Amino acid sequence: SVSTDANAIFVMNNRGYVTADNYLYVFDLSSKSGSRPRIGNRISFANTGDTAGQIYGRVVGSTTYIFIAVQGSTVEELKVLNVTNHNQSSQWRVVGDINIEPNNCSSLESGKAVYVNPDGTRAFISSTNDVNFKEFFTINTSNKSNPSLVGGLATNPPCTNGGGYEAGGMDPEQSVVVSLLENRAIVVGLDNPNDAINSKEYQVLDLTNEANPTYCGGLDIDAGIIGITSVKEADGDAFSYIITNDASNELKIIQGGPDGTYLEEGVYDSVETD
Q1: DSSP code of 270?
Q2: What's the Cα-to-Cα distance from 156 to each of 52, 212, 249, 266, rounded to whole Å?
Q3: Distance of alpha carbon 52 from alpha carbon 49, whole angstroms
Q4: Residue 263 pairs with which residues in a beta bridge?
Q5: Which pTM was predicted?
Q6: Which of 57, 75, 105, 218 has its CA 20 to 30 A from that of 254?
Q7: Would you tell me how many other CB atoms lie within 10 Å of the CB of residue 270?
Q8: Dihedral of CA 94/123/163/166: which sign?
Q9: φ, ψ for residue 91, nearest 5 deg
Q10: 150/211 Cα distance (integer angstroms)
Q11: Are the C-beta atoms of residues 103 and 157 closer than 8 Å to each other?
Q12: What HEC string does 65-122 produce?
């Protein structure tokens, strides 16, 4: 066991996944009261002293995966763990990872947040602000043992090529994908005091070109945003709930979407005329 605070948590299918220091712990949540029993041994996912920025779980077929955004000295910012069966060593370990900033492009080594699409083939990761490197990336996780950066890795010089999105002077804290059908993601964070660019702290991205997402709207939240969760209602409305450094209004709700029921996809047949 460790005597430090937990860093990240995810709950899925009566299991709780918690990170503390550089370890992932799995708990049985079948019962919701009292102390919960641990399942299997803890799994080391990073160097000693490193932590998880965020974790996300998906079940793909009969396999359960946990994706971890890693912060610290570990060169890989994303780790993929198989946590299906703790009685089999091949199903209770790190199975894949990726270093999104190789080639001396950055030494930040910081994965702040991660979101994974339902079929587990794409992970979206945000990283610490760097004037020489991008801050939001799409990772192809179809092959869990060999994730790859969509659009390719940056090379030095100039380190601004390859896949990903440049957030300007915004230092991301968290990101979330609101609608995969509409190809929209939201990245939130703080204004980097070491960057002269005064960028919006709430940035909406168009993921149509997943190799190079583009900015399509945003808001200035000068106090800074440190967390976000988003929901989409049946009538098409999208709401983001953000927590900020604003001393008087720490919780804010932002509305987006078309405000009305509509079909996200379909086929249009034109009317025949004589």
Answers
A1: P
A2: 27, 18, 43, 44
A3: 10
A4: none
A5: 0.88
A6: 57
A7: 5
A8: negative
A9: -115, 25
A10: 5
A11: no
A12: EEEEEEECCCCCCEEEEEECCCCCHHHEEEEEEECCCCCCCCCCCEEEEEEECCCCCE
Q: Tell me the sheet residues that pair with 242.
A: 228, 252
Which tokens is 218 given? Answer: 């945003």
**Please, are residues 160 and 219 in contact by the beta-carbon 8 Å criterion?**
no
The C-alpha atoms of residue 37 and residue 57 are separated, in whole angstroms, by 20
HSE on the CB side for 271, CA within 13 Å? 1
Question: In the 8-state DSSP scheme, what is residue 164?
Answer: S
Q: What angle do CA 42, 79, 77 make, to 5 degrees?
A: 125
- Cβ atoms of 75 and 88 closer than 8 Å: no
Residue 47 C-beta-side C-alpha neighbours within 13 Å: 9
Tens of pLDDT along 71-120?
A: 999 999 999 999 999 999 999 999 999 998 887 787 777 889 999 999 99
Amino acid symbol at 197: I
Alpha-carbon distance 30 to 213, whole Å? 40
Q: Which residue has the tokens 């190789």?
A: 102
